[in-house]
UniProtKB/TrEMBL annotation:
<dbReference type="InterPro" id="IPR053169">
    <property type="entry name" value="MUG_Protein"/>
</dbReference>
<dbReference type="Pfam" id="PF03663">
    <property type="entry name" value="Glyco_hydro_76"/>
</dbReference>
<feature type="signal peptide">
    <location>
        <begin position="1"/>
        <end position="23"/>
    </location>
</feature>
<dbReference type="GO" id="GO:0005975">
    <property type="term" value="P:carbohydrate metabolic process"/>
</dbReference>
<keyword id="KW-0732">Signal</keyword>
<dbReference type="InterPro" id="IPR008928">
    <property type="entry name" value="6-hairpin_glycosidase_sf"/>
</dbReference>
<dbReference type="InterPro" id="IPR005198">
    <property type="entry name" value="Glyco_hydro_76"/>
</dbReference>
<protein>
    <recommendedName>
        <fullName>Six-hairpin glycosidase</fullName>
    </recommendedName>
</protein>
């Protein structure tokens, strides 16, 4: 019914949110930008030119999200092509467990869209490989990498999220057990600061290293806790997720409410992916809470992207407050996630 409602709104040219004289049809904007993302897709490799392996998982996730809210979009051939080309290297392509987590969530999203068991099976295989990284050095948690050099937030947040997502879809108790075990460790690890922001990782003494509060570290744990709440029928996880989300919004937005990482340009190729991950997970939290402040945050960022951070071909850049500079598959898919997030809560 929600899909039909969005479709009819689009056909009628109805805009449900206005600011001054500017109208925002988030679904239409997201649709145009989803099509633009395919500019970077490589049919032969199944990934996106000009960006990394894990970033391509986020591009795939964005396309699946888009089709999930828009009946006129169809990226199923793209999803299938990427799986067929890469499924035999999913657990060996990278030496990093977080890369496996991104792909596992992408394939779970594809499964939700298509109900094709191949996608879910692939996600389970990736999770099983991630579980091999469980550490005893800091009384738990999974390593970031297969060389066991760093215990960080993102790998563990993804491990929690994948486990919780699989628990909801397979009803296999082992996934729920892993998700709860991971959260119990994460909550006590010191990774969450006193003001509810999440730092990057632990030092050699198993203490919070005080490294950067990146937007994606706030987002993934929020989404993971929302999913764990569903799988466990425990609303207390939603309360924690909400605290973390609002701490991040208060810490990482400018005076206009637009999201920024503390370092955006010249900080390495991964940072350009981060902000959209936060917005995607905030949209999931909004669905669970109907918090109007979260909806306003999502709309504010989508509006700024469309107004200030795109070119004439609807390619989206790095700095959501503008001005537009240039785009690649990473900056574009990240900003696209913010447009999709706003579209997904439109009219709710």
């Amino acid at each position: 019914m929600a899909r039909l409602s969005n479709y009819l709104l689009t056909l009628l040219g109805t805009f449900v949110f206005t600011q001054g004289t500017q109208a925002y049809d988030y679904l239409s904007h997201a649709r145009s930008s989803s099509d633009a993302l395919m500019h970077w897709y490589n049919q032969g490799t199944g990934v996106f030119n000009g960006t990394g392996w894990w970033n391509s998982a986020e591009c795939i996730t964005a396309l699946a999200d888009m089709q999930g809210i828009d009946p006129t979009s169809n990226f199923q051939d793209t999803l299938r092509n990427t799986l067929e080309i890469n499924k035999n290297v999913m657990t060996t392509k990278s030496d990093f467990y977080d890369d496996e987590g991104w792909w596992a969530l992408a394939w779970i999203k594809a499964y939700d869209l298509t109900h094709d068991q191949d996608y879910l099976n692939t996600a389970e295989q990736l999770f099983d490989d991630m579980a091999k990284g469980w550490s005893i050095d800091c009384k738990g948690g999974i390593w970031w990498d297969k060389d066991h050099t760093y215990l960080n937030s993102i790998a563990n947040e993804l491990f929690l999220s994948v486990a919780a997502h699989l628990a909801s879809r397979t009803r296999n108790i082992k996934y729920l057990d892993w998700a709860i075990k991971e959260w119990q460790w994460f909550e006590q690890s010191g990774l969450i600061s006193k003001n509810n922001t999440v730092n990057d990782g632990l030092d050699g003494s198993c203490r919070n290293n005080g490294y950067t509060v990146w937007s994606y570290n706030q987002g993934v744990i929020v989404g993971g806790l929302v999913e764990l709440s569903k799988a466990s029928f425990d609303d207390s996880y939603i309360v924690i997720a909400r605290d973390i989300a609002w701490a991040a919004i208060e810490t990482l937005t400018d005076s206009n409410g637009v999201l920024h990482d503390s370092c955006e340009r010249g900080c390495g190729g991964d940072v350009s992916q981060f902000k959209g991950i936060f917005n995607r997970n905030v949209a999931q939290l909004y669905t669970a809470t109907s918090d109007p402040g979260l909806k306003k945050f999502l709309e504010t960022n989508a509006q700024s992207i469309w107004k200030n951070d795109r070119d004439s071909q609807n390619r989206l850049g790095l700095k959501w407050s503008g001005p537009y500079d240039k785009a690649d598959a990473s900056t574009h898919s990240s900003a696209l996630m913010a447009l999709i997030a706003a579209a997904s809560v439109q009219g709710s």
